[in-house]
């Protein structure tokens, strides 16, 4: 590559990074602005203030924000765990076994994934009220499974398909039951796939707003995105923009941490050396 | 250790295609059996049916006298080396070899003892803590073998284990496998399409074609008394030459002159107008270099040499000939089936490396007519096969083999005593 090409690539890359990260930088900047400073017509706050963070963590909005944060974490983690476990078995079956209705399951999963959430939420609201799931954790976990399972099954079956079938056969010849072969050979090799899927599933659940706002009414189950929508300013004439930005920054942190933590686990090429290379 | 018996084994796929068709084969306890054939002959399918990875459509599979058709692979107690080794990439070499023992809940001490014994035999001691990804092809292959020999399996199964190695390593591993098998004396079934492996490793070789057994015999019998055109063409490199011939009394008229057949064999040729003579390259010789004493045992002919190849220790000459349509079609079909490139109607002739025969000139050749075989071009059957002589060759091979196994086991156990520890062989 010539120097000229390198420079062009560098400039192009930088442009894309700026374009992608600019909104986030703006939110961070807004979160440090005092209410009076919000309309200062400049990117940076005139004076850096922690007021917004204080407000949502210890101040007036903390009653709304902190329980929501707890709800979000718990609900999303539980939904992710269940979805990964179920998807792992389903994907294994889809990748390895030949059974009638395999195509049907895969296409149903796809249909569920592209089905607009807003069209299900009203009937679900009625149903949940009748059977007592409204405003409870399971009341959100179950719809979240419907969001995360299809994509999890698709991603994981792609990963399982990558693993040479011979490994499993070798394990069976070595004396393993199907379950032992799955647990001791397939699962360790599929681990990067499971982590990738877990992260995707967690994001989907974490970012949900429609279910969160429609199927909850109190802090018993309300997740963060819904809580953000309910923030109010100190008076009715004041926009809660600063507080919302601060909350948004805090909500983004676990996602960033998650990606940084698992980045190392999502390494391709773990199956190197299984077969000739 | 156990014998393996197959009775009328059939493998039929859903679309009715029979990959293995009515195969009956007895493999004796401790025998080294080779399954060989071109691709699509069903040899790997047969092996996978023995180990239990493939369902058996009909027939009986007996291992050690017990019917195993419905047993899962883990209950058959066989060990297998896969073509691509199938090592577990997330485990160290040590854990890879120990895996079968871990599954059978062997104590740690016992695992260590057995893995060490196996890695001693395979010279893997320096690599036990490494991951398969960091090993060379030959080392991976040895790890796969280690995993196979670490437990007391009833039999070893190899599925083209050397096809991923380069030529030099392949030769090395071939002798390694042979030594190991003699030493452990375990029944072994070995699938290959490489005829060098088939000829050098096997006590007996089973030649398969389109899911059917053609011939089961010692390598020598296959070479000298092939049962049909297919086996004759498959075994031997360079391959046997097939020439058109018309019988006239006790003579066969061929493009290379008349070949005289001894009366006993000539009697079997009656009733055919067109025949095919199979002559191995080494039955030819440069006529000027043939000893007077044996000259009368064959016939001489003159032919133009197309190409010669001088290899130092040997020399090959290519002699084109004309053949009638019926023969060329048959030869073309055969070469297609053997995965060979289109055969031209030319004979490959092995001559002494000191011969001065040159390309493009006419030369005189001598042809040893004692060992030629005559085939029926329609059915491919060998009309001059001497079954008794063939069986004798296989009997001799079996006898040799018993002695060899005895000897190498004596030696192995002597080694074992000297080292003061048990080896995988006695374990």
SSE arrangement:
The complex is a heterodimer of chains A (277) and B (427).
Chain A: H1 3-31, H2 51-57, H3 62-96, H4 102-114, H5 117-131, H6 137-162, H7 165-173, H8 178-207, H9 210-214, H10 224-229, H11 241-262
Chain B: E1 4-12, E2 18-27, E3 32-36, H1 43-51, E4 58-63, E5 66-67, E6 79-81, H2 93-103, H3 108-122, H4 137-149, E7 155-159, H5 167-184, E8 187-192, H6 195-201, E9 204-209, E10 212-217, H7 219-224, H8 229-234, E11 241-248, E12 251-254, E13 257-260, H9 263-266, E14 275-279, E15 284-286, H10 292-295, E16 298-304, E17 307-310, E18 315-320, H11 325-337, E19 346-351, E20 362-368, E21 373-375, H12 387-419
Parallel strand pairs in B: 3-8, 3-9, 6-7, 7-8
Antiparallel strand pairs in B: 1-2, 1-4, 4-5, 9-10, 11-12, 11-14, 12-13, 14-21, 15-20, 16-20, 17-18, 18-19
Helix pairs in contact in B: 2-3, 2-4, 3-4, 5-12
